[in-house]
Amino acid sequence: MTHPKQPFARRIVIAFTLMTLVVSGFFSLSIVAIVHFVERHLVSQELKSELDTVINQDIKQGHIPRLDAATRFFASDLPPYAIPESLRHAEKGFSELREGERAYYIYVMKRDGQTYMLVEDQSEFEAREQMLFRVILFSFLLSVVGAWLLGLLLARKVIAPVIRLARQVRHRDQLLPLAPPLAPEYPDDEVGHLAAAFDSTLGQLRQSLERERLFTSDVSHELRTPLMVIQGSCELLRETELPVQANRQVERIGRAAQEMHELVQTFLILARARREEAASGGSATLANVAEEQSRRWGPPIRAKGLNFELVVEDTDSASYNLTFLSTVLSNLLRNALHYTENGTVRLILEKGGFRVEDSGAGIPAEHRERIFQPFVRGEQARGEGLGLGLSLVKRICMHQGWQVRVSDLKPSGSCFRVSLK
Residue 396 above 60 pLDDT? Predict the structure, then answer.
């Protein structure tokens, strides 16, 4: 079971608020408990002392109990001070009694089989006590709200360097070889150490990207010369009289050389750092590239005994990178050729994209993300590929801001949809 992750700033606010809630709640409850304890203990002692005075001095000497107006004396053996019916079941010692809005303190003493009682009206004291408790509650709530606001302020202050560092790390210029280090802009604290760690990791990443770029550029550049020799030789062989089988082999070699040339051009463009530098690949409309790739892949698809269709559902007049779009279309059509044994391969043009549909075995749902990874091939692999075609398609789409998705067709087959906008 996975739990949703809270943002770091929110966790700071929650922790700060909970800490204040616990501490303030503990002190508030402690104050209430102390007030109740002191009230019970002191009032009990005062009433006991006062009741002893009344019994031992005033009553013995036949005097009227000397009590204030809020206190009344009752005794079970003195008719003038008969205990009211409502108080006859009061327990020995100190207790409280409420009658409507009135509050009374009662102290009961039993001596020589008789019951003596003092009843003190404490309504005013209770009202003040309730006011005190309201003040405590208000202070508690105010402290929690204040802690929440203070937590927000402190969270923003604490998280500000982290947010700034995250923005700097996310900036695309950080991958450039001459990007300045991040650590000198921060103090020697946890954020500074994090910035230093990012500097180290980004430095290694820049070196890896630079090595990959140089390797791709060098290899692609070195492959151009032998490819030109192969293509030139194929053109010369086409002009000579060769047997039919030999002509087919020459055509196959020519197609392979052309594919290799396009791949070399694609890798050269991908090796460049910025997307806008890819303009060197030329531009073309989707319809033009689709026509060219249909003429190229239609014959081998039909030669395998499959039907091939180019369907135009909607027109798209936008211009796209010729090299990249040709490579994507070529790889998807080649993939459909390799994994379709019977039925139809369709190239469908739509507004802002296209679909390549086939009637092959389809792709299980759990494999639809993996097939775009390098060196991953379908369970029913065909041809001599290494599983790099769809990986290259994914890489080009990410480079150009396109999207490629795969889904199943009914009753069988796959659909690769590329959105160019």
Answer: yes
